[in-house]
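We keep the chain:
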Amino acid sequence: MFKKLIPLALIAVCTPALAAEPMVIQVKRLSLDTALKIAQGSIAACREKGIQIGVTVVDRDGTVQVTLRDTIAAPITVPISEQKARTAVNFNAATSAMKDRANSPIGRIDGLVMSAGGVPILVGGSALAGGVGVSGAPAGETDEECALAGVAKVQEDLDLAM
């Protein structure tokens, strides 16, 4: 009889803990206008440096929201910028921080680019809302500067929207 009561006791003890979990989780998403401002800000920042780039903004799931390619940016900048943005979202980190992992098994997964130029878009300093990837500058560090400049165009408004 005692053995039959143990499972019932466990259910009774665990049920309140399970009930405390929310049944629905709210997720913040970038609006199209915000994603477009980030992409345009990234292009503007690189144009100031005399560089033509491709830029992609993805949502928190890595789905493309906006892709822009400046007038004479190489066509290859589009897929590279998308992969950088998607990598930044998947790891919730700047791709420049992942250079050491590029030659590891995870760094060889198709669709990931672990070179500078991809950054996560955070709301309130910690909530992941998306990612932006830039490609086309002579150095990945410049790609990252332009990506960060694009995010900076909307960061204050994003933080206030929290």
In short: The domain at 26-160 is CATH 3.30.450.150 (Beta-Lactamase). The chain has four helices and four strands. Residues 140-160 form the longest helix (21 residues).
